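can u do me a favor
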């Protein structure tokens, strides 16, 4: 089963273009170093919940949009190897982050179920 890194963060609306540019560069770097897939999504139907929600989780304000993204790897070992190469890649060093990294939620996940393994 594949391994997935998932991310949720808040990006100021006036920095969306800067975030897109950074995401394009990051996508190229991750894919070049062995990731299987790289997806970035901008929230357009993510209501602020009373108890829990994507916006609440990252403390998004009215002038921010929630971004949900994930990177797919062959397995955990591949993920660790790819991320070591990415962190050493000079193309991402010194990049200005167009979001508050302290409010980013991220983690690694072992896939539990995939439709292509069930629906045949």
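np, heres the sequence
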């Amino acid at each position: 089963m594949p391994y997935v890194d998932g991310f949720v963060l808040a990006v100021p609306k006036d920095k969306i273009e800067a975030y897109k540019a950074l995401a394009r560069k990051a996508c190229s770097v991750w894919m070049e170093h062995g990731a299987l897939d790289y997806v970035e999504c901008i929230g357009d139907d993510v209501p602020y919940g009373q108890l829990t929600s994507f916006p609440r989780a990252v403390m998004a304000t009215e002038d921010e949009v929630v971004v949900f993204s994930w990177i797919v790897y062959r397995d955990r070992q591949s993920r660790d190897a790819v991320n070591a190469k990415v962190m050493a890649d000079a193309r991402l060093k010194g990049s200005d982050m167009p979001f508050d990294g302290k409010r980013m939620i991220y983690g690694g996940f072992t896939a539990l179920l995939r439709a292509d393994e069930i629906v045949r």
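The chain has a mean pLDDT of 95. hope that helps!!
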